[in-house]
Design goal:
about 375 residues; elongated; 12 helices
Amino acid sequence: MLGKLYSLARGGHAANVKGQHALISSIPHLKALLDADQEVVMVLNCDALLVFANQATVELAGAKNSDALLGCRTGDVLRCTESGKQPGGCGAGEFCQYCGNRFAIAGALDGKVGMSECCVAHRGRNDNVYLRVKTTPITVEGERFVVLSALDITDEKRRKALERTFFHDLLNTAGGIVGFADLLQEVDLKDMEELKAPFIRTSRQLVEEILAQRDLLAAERDDLRINTVTINSLELLQSLASSFKSHKRFHACQVKVAAADFMVKTDKTLLVRILGNMLKNALEASDSAQGVELRAALEDGRPVFGVWNQGYVPREVQAGLFKGSFSTKGDGRGLGTYSMKLFGEKYLDGQVACESSPAGGTVFKITLPATSLA
């Protein structure tokens, strides 16, 4: 039903949008009531085209007035990046089939009150916007419409995700330190030397996780400071690989460094954090004996760093990558890809992407600007 609805509208299905706008606008005091609401509120016709919008909707869309939005789809109004990728606009993109907003609208057109959450990659804000969407079917003078209200829950979602991830990782690492402490009470002094290295490594990991959380929160607040230094691409990846040797899948996955040797100017801490998340994801997504490669190359005069593994990321999962509340690992996980995007694009001026196919495997990569070459 949903696909048919959108294909009809893209094919030029005639809808008296202006007449329907006049009909809805004639409801006494409706505009004043909805303009007083801080939530985004739209009224859609049976073809999911906008026929009425309140002031909050106009402001989110960056439009001059509500008349400029008449006949638009919700993705166009919300300035979703997917709506601009195909000539058909909202509903025509590859990942539109997974949009919670569309399912809520379809349910309302079938006469059901719907509630869903959706994540919109907003063009104007250059960020992901999380919305809690409620759709309600109504009938006005025999014509069916859908009232759609959307509450921006971006801050709420991010805060909860950050808290869950932080406490999950912190407790895991702290538990390891407690385990070492318990062992110290049981072992002979001559065996202490064997515990020293893993104890130090785990303690440093705890500090690193606290610092990573601090930087992520600072980045969210636009308070993160960049410290640009000159680093060697090959040495950077070799050092990163060495730091992961204690990972339970490192040796089974036969991690290799395949890197060109060049110098680059960037924030080393952030780049290592981005690549470390890429490597961690690759190891966790790989079965034993599947290869993992750390890569660095110059492409079109720009430095490119990445991590490849043999696994495949399904298309429906790719739709959620780099979104702050998305996780394939269960509650308390999933901010790794989001932080890659945040740090890599907002602070390093790069481009973070994922390419995956059943035959070619998966590579997460960051392309830095040509000006970062030293």
